[in-house]
């Protein structure tokens, strides 16, 4: 499975959430609402999630293997940085 498109849907400067991203796999499957978050150790990628009735958040979609998580994070952060640099 290959990432064939990464789109930055929204960039924000306020708060810890910095961007909302959509990624497409094999030109056939898209995942929306992936977030770029500024944490204590730098930027990280959060998968789309839903708030449960008990107040906790649960991922709607997420990679099972660390290798795939790394591939997604690299592609998302690369596109985010590219869009930021184009805006400046």
TrEMBL record:
One of its GO terms (biological process) is division septum assembly. Keywords: Cell cycle, Cell division, Septation. Signal peptide: none annotated. It comes from the Bacteria. InterPro entries: SpoVG, SpoVG_sf. Could be involved in septation. Belongs to the SpoVG family. This is Putative septation protein SpoVG. It comes from Gottschalkia acidurici (strain ATCC 7906 / DSM 604 / BCRC 14475 / CIP 104303 / KCTC 5404 / NCIMB 10678 / 9a) (Clostridium acidurici). The gene is spoVG.
């Amino acid at each position: 499975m290959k990432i064939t498109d990464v789109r930055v849907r929204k960039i924000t400067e306020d708060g810890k959430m910095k961007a909302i991203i959509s990624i497409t796999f094999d030109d056939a499957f898209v995942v929306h609402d992936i977030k770029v978050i500024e944490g204590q150790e730098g930027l990280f990628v959060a998968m789309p999630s839903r708030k449960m009735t008990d107040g906790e958040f649960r991922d709607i979609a997420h990679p099972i293997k660390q290798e795939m998580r790394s591939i997604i994070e690299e592609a998302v952060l690369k596109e985010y940085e590219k869009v930021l640099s184009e805006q400046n």
